[in-house]
Amino acid sequence: MAEFTVHSHPGSPFGRAVMATLEEKRAPFVLARLVPKSPEHLALHPFGRIPVFEHDGFRLYETQAILRYLDRVLPSPPLTPDDPKRAARMDQVMNINDWYLFQDVGNVIIFHRVVGPRVMGTTPDEEAIKAAMPKAHVVFAELARLLGQQPYFAGDALSLADLMIAPAMAFFRQTPEWPALGTPHPNLVAWLDRMEGRPSMQATTWERLTARVAQAA
Questions:
Q1: DSSP letters spanning 87-98
Q2: Around 114, how many Cα atoms within 13 Å sit in the side-chain half-sphere?
């Protein structure tokens, strides 16, 4: 099979979701580092988002589309439930990630606490973080409710939803806000522990991916 290329940045949770999925599929891939909003980036993605994916001359962006494509062209192990209700739950959680966990929550708290200081040397905007916390509490509570006592969001088996949500949730764990967000939801904390123990997540940490890019240079 032709090589998979992921154009991303080692710190992108969306890029990590794609690479963790490839790791789950045991599919080798190339990580091509993108400088966000650079001319090279905008030539691949007109909206300037990360990641961009290429396979056998086929280029694709939008993380959900990439993950579903990978599950079709690499069907083993399957990451989409056969049961329609479980598949619908998977889709729902993936959309919660994009519309509610990322929008006005992750792109504020994670940016100001982790990405900005680490990449751009910025100082966190405490007022912006404070303003994002009420929505963060709603999102965490709903994710905990949907997870319930299942090991994974779509039931007993890992799905694309888990691989989509876990990279962002792992970033929250690095913030001072984590105790307030995670402590009320021990099932969500246990799920994240389970996810971070998977080889696919361990292989795609910011540090591991940065080292991978350096070795390829």
A1: HHHHHHHHHHII
A2: 21
Distance CA 140, CA 146 (A): 10
- Give the pLDDT of residue 144: 98
What number of CA atoms fall less than 13 Å from residue 137's CA on the CB side? 8
- 12-22 pLDDT, tens digit per residue, is 999 999 999 99
The structural domains of the chain, ordered by start, are 4-78+201-216 (3.40.30.10), 84-198 (1.20.1050.10)
In which residue are the tokens 């993108």 written? 34
User: Would you place residue 2 in the very low, low, confident or very high pLDDT band (cuts 50, 70, 90)?
Assistant: low
DSSP states of 139-155: HHHHHHHHHTT-SBTTB
Which run of H or of E encompasses 29? strand 29-33
